[in-house]
Amino acid sequence: MPLVKINDLSKTFHTANGDVHALKNIDLSIEQGDIFGIIGLSGAGKSTLVRCINFLEIPTEGTVYFEGKDLKSLTHKELLKARQSMGMIFQSFNLLEQRTAIKNVCFPLEIAGVNKKDAEKRARELLKIVELEDREKSYPSQLSGGQKQRVAIARALSTNPKVLLCDEATSALDPNTTRSILALLKEINETMGVTVIIITHEMSVIEQICNKVAVIDKSRIVEVGSVKDIFANPKSDMAKQLIIPQNIVHSLENYSTMRIIFDGLSSYEPVIANLIMECRVPANIMYANTKDVNGVAAGEMIIQIPVDSVDKVSGYFERIGIKYKEEM
Amino acid sequence: MEITELADLLIKGTGETLYMTLVSTFIAYVIGLPIGIILNITDKEGICPNKAVNIVLGVIVNIIRSIPFIILLVAIIPVTRFIVGTSIGSTATIVPLTAAAGPFVARMVESSIKEVDPGVIEAAQSAGASPIQIIFKVLIPEAKPSLIVGSTIAVTTILGYSTMAGFVGGGGLGSIAINYGYYRYQTDIMMVTVVLLVVVVQLFQEIGMRITRKTDKRIN
User: Fold this and answer.
1) Which of A92, A232, A323, B74 is 20 to 30 A from B155, comparing alpha carbons?
2) Chain A closest CA to B119's CA: distance in Å?
3) How many CB pairs under 8 A join A and B?
4) pLDDT value, residue A288
5) What would the mean pLDDT of A178-204 be, rounded to a whole number?
6) Does the beta-carbon distance from A84 to B128 stay under 8 Å?
7) pLDDT at residue number A37
8) Least CA distance to A92: which residue of chain B?
9) What CATH number belongs to B3-215?
10) Structural domains of chain A ordered from first start
11) CB within 8 A of A197, min separation 6: which ones?
């Protein structure tokens, strides 16, 4: 049974300027333990979608199941209870400004009726997990953006939720802080078994921690699958736009462009150097974004090669087991 | 008039003014705080939108606020007599002061609560907080510094109103200023009462600002 299941969900906002269809016919299944990314440009409807999961927005049509329960069938009280099993973090952190870090983490526990002593004990454990145990008496105004998000994560986890909803949680942070927050989310997913749902407009966020991804474009889901598959072979225009680097200088005459994807090859192997030596082609690197993840190469590269050597190069890639696509 | 006599008069007047102002402010908050909160949460952007309640309360508040205080003062004399037994003196003045200040306080509270970041309210909702929990654990505590600034403004405004009540025998420094300064042309006594009023207003303002600075955790 999927932890979160969304069936044919639509959401329409009635505004003074007419109806706005924020979401149309969404179907999604999110399994226990997933780190599920939902990516799209701003205005695509992704923030509305994540709010439909905890019913902060009530869908106009369709059903949301959480742990097999239809959220629409719950009483208001049961819904509030269900929300305690769903933590949420935000782009702007949304901490209570007049409470210290530890009191912020205690907040959902107070809501759930946990007594003060137990709540503070739990809050201290969580502040330790997010590495802020020495800042428990600080107010949000005394913390940096990354620290605030760590407090927000601790707060969202205090009631032992099954799922953590992240709404553009790293969009207000610098690249280094983003990496450390994402690493923390991954650690929480692995050690505590919390399912994570991430809303983002940045492909790098999806690449770094998600195992599955749904691409949302103009209120609809246009593609969904494992990050590996979609990254290697994006089918929808939106996925291509998000994944394949745009604005690359094209078309030297009689050259053809190839996109090669590294996922799992040893990073010690000099792929391009071998290609040039073995096939004797003048390969031109137009774009490269590769990382070494624990000794394994990950990422992509866009190269240009003479049209007449395409077959030779394809053969070489097939032989050494690299995914490639002739592009553009 | 002997100087000691004058001093006694002024001390008594100051005491009455403080009594009227503080008691009226307190009662105005007992009435205005819940009304302000209801106005905020029943707004269409609020946590319990309810158009009917919002409009009815809003209209009542606006009507009372549009009546000039000096007219309200006279108009509700029967009500004052019914509650206090007389319409003269500082205790009687508390009734019209409260009637005028309650709706004013309600609007001040409404706007203070409106300053609370909607994102923080959303975070509380996502944690499963009920509307009552949001009011007492989010809206009021988060708006506290702004509520205190508001109460400082309210208390000085009510002080101003209380002096107007001097025209209809309301007691306090306002009565002294009017009776001695206006009717008997004793400008010196009027000046002294005005100076005393300035001092009292300054005092309230200063105390309010100090408490705000102490409570607000956003500025460090």
Assistant:
1) B74
2) 5
3) 80
4) 85
5) 94
6) yes
7) 96
8) B119
9) 1.10.3720.10
10) 4-239 (3.40.50.300), 244-327 (3.30.70.260)
11) A4, A30, A34, A36, A38, A50, A53, A163, A164, A165, A166
